[in-house]
Sequence to fold (199 residues):
Amino acid sequence: MSEETERFWNGRYREGEPLGNEPASLLVEHAHLLPERGRALDVAMGTGRNALYLASKGLKVTGVDVSGVAVERCLAETERLGLHLSALQADVMTLDLARESYDVIANFYFLERDLCPRLARALRPDGLLFFETFTIDQLRYGWGPRNPQWLLRPGELRSLFPDLETLLHREEVVEGKRGLKAVASLVARKPRRNRIRIA
Fold:
């Protein structure tokens, strides 16, 4: 993790919560899919809005963020709410993601294409992925990432997880806290392994 990146995000979180405190609507809308127990990973969690939600559903959650300020705020909120989760200050790109170690992975508004195969491998069979971030159409609305590297092309999100079963995929323009935003959303499941039947 570069010191420049850490400083940038620490400054953003000192100013306030870039994405608000409520859990992502994609996660809430599909809460019925969540397992009753298991391990969850929240990638680039910020101050933990989604990690805290997953913990409130009974999952054993690990949240990761590059910002120490965000991690401290998440831990304070965890204590206030009487929840339990692990919050790590780390660069998720260098984090060891063990194969088939999570039942749920949440990735909201963080796009590193090289990370996607590792996230898919880290899911257990029947594990769920919740992924949402900006598309290239966001450039029309004057806020958010300006570098196309951090923006999805039309139809790209599903292609980043070719081995997962798509439960929901949509691309839309919705009202956000800062105005209109163009986003792609994916809910996907890792298929179970084929079992060899012995007669």
Summary: Residues 68-81 form the longest helix (14 residues). Helices lie at 3-15, 25-29, 49-56, 68-81, 116-122, 156-159.
